[in-house]
Amino acid sequence: MNCPAPPQPDDEVPYIPPSRRRLLSWLVGGLSALLAGFIGIPFIAALLTPVLQPKSKGAWVALGPVADFPAGTFTAADYLSPSNDGWMKSSMQQTVWVQNSESGVIALSAICTHAGCRVGWHHNLNRFVCPCHGGQYDASGRVISGPPPRPLTRFMAKVEGGTIYVKSA
Known about the structure:
Layout: H1 20-52, E1 60-65, E2 74-85, E3 88-101, E4 104-109, E5 120-122, E6 127-129, E7 136-137, E8 143-145, E9 154-155, E10 157-160, E11 163-167
Antiparallel strand pairs: 1-11, 2-3, 3-4, 4-9, 5-6, 6-7, 7-8, 10-11
């Protein structure tokens, strides 16, 4: 069996000078990459910017004039809670119980912490009652009896310019 002869110093790879065609090929490739960067980077940035922004943490939402909320009792108020999560902008209807008094405004969630049912204010009992499983809360939202594990969620509320505002969740 014959093996090929090892390369000799005379068998070096010959030097081929760069051709114009090869130079133009590199030039077109470089310009194409530069153009793709100019177009692609702003496009990718515009695509990813909503995802990289922090989620909205709630906004003040007007519930209505103070006159619509009689002093000393709870009044249900519905509002749309805006939400911004990446590309998704939505709003969800929420209900809060609002009490307007001389000491300030109280806003409590109308959602029972046990099963998510809507609680109602019973003026004669002076408490919130959940119709699903009988959970009861006092006027400050603390659990009095029943299965609810936590008090009603309390929202920040304020009066500004004669209007009651609540900070959405």
